[in-house]
Amino acid sequence: MNQKSFLDQLERGLQDLPRDAISEILSDYTEYFHDALSDGRSEQEIAAALGDPRRLARELKVQMHYRTWERERNVSSLMRTIGAIAGLGVLNFILAVPFMFYLCLLTCFMAVSVICSITGLIMVLMWGSHTATGWPSLQTANLGPDDGYVNITAFQPDSDDSSKTAKEAADARRKEMGSATSALHYHMPDIEVELRDGDQIKLTSRKGEVVALKSEHGHLQRADGGKLEDDDSYSMRRREIGKLNVVTADGDTVQIERDAKTGHIDWFSMDHAGVASAIVVPKRADDTVQLVMDDDDDFHVMTRASTPKKVLGFGLALLVGGVVCFILLLWLVRITWRGTVSFVRWQFGRIQDARTA
């Protein structure tokens, strides 16, 4: 192999490096050839002494990346050095590939732990703000314009309560259940409203049509005296409803109103003082929401768990879990960094020893 062939192969092997670095290396080896030729050696002898130009190029790339890493000491320069070492041989490549995969996983887990920590912190702060000021509302839930019906019926006493009025039977059931008689149920995709004697409901369609209903003596009636399509019941498609108001005989109200911009239906209940609170509506189809009256005739929502508590619990779990995982990963990163630095220096020392030998 003559000088030109050697330098051409060396240049092709160095093509991943910056052009200035390649020019400097080629200039050094051109000068080396010139000095050796002056000493009476042939081009073939010089090329044979230098070895395979392709392997020489790989070793030179390792040296350049290693020196860059020694100056900058960052992850990207270390990865380039490891990649250059992997190009020296099959064994190095077999070792480097799983290591690079491990580093990618470690980076992903670090990112996930940071995201979980930040998300958990935000949720805890939201809960704190909600508890202190009521903002943001963590209990707001919307039903959307899905298919389904709003079904209104009057409370019907059980057979053994036939001697009681509907209101008396409802009050008796409330005592038996521990201050919990339901006035409104939600179960995907339908909403069921069960009126006691004296309760009233007003349905306003998205077109502005109003239907007012009331319950008297255990029967549902239209306030305008019109007939119901079905005895003691009335139904309207959810997607057609613009607003729904339930007013109990005790004066409490429940309001379900559609947002004109989003098309979603939000639920709110108001006590005697006019204080409004949002109603929790679980997203799972197997959940049922019951709007109930307590001993003070205030509306409450009975669900598996209160939404603010869920936000706090889930937020704390994310925050603590994310922070703990991040600390463990930092410890693992520190050990990995030290091991990687030792491996790179060992490999670089081997290359240096091989070149001097």
TrEMBL record:
Keyword Membrane belongs to the record: yes
Q: Which superkingdom?
A: Bacteria
| Chain intervals for the UniProt region annotation (Disordered) | 155-174
Per the UniProt record, the source organism is Amantichitinum ursilacus
Output this protein's name. Answer: DUF1700 domain-containing protein
Entry keyword set? Membrane, Transmembrane, Transmembrane helix
Any Pfam family: HAAS
Q: Where is the composition biased (Basic and acidic residues)?
A: 161-174
Q: Where are the transmembrane segments?
A: 77-94, 100-127, 311-333
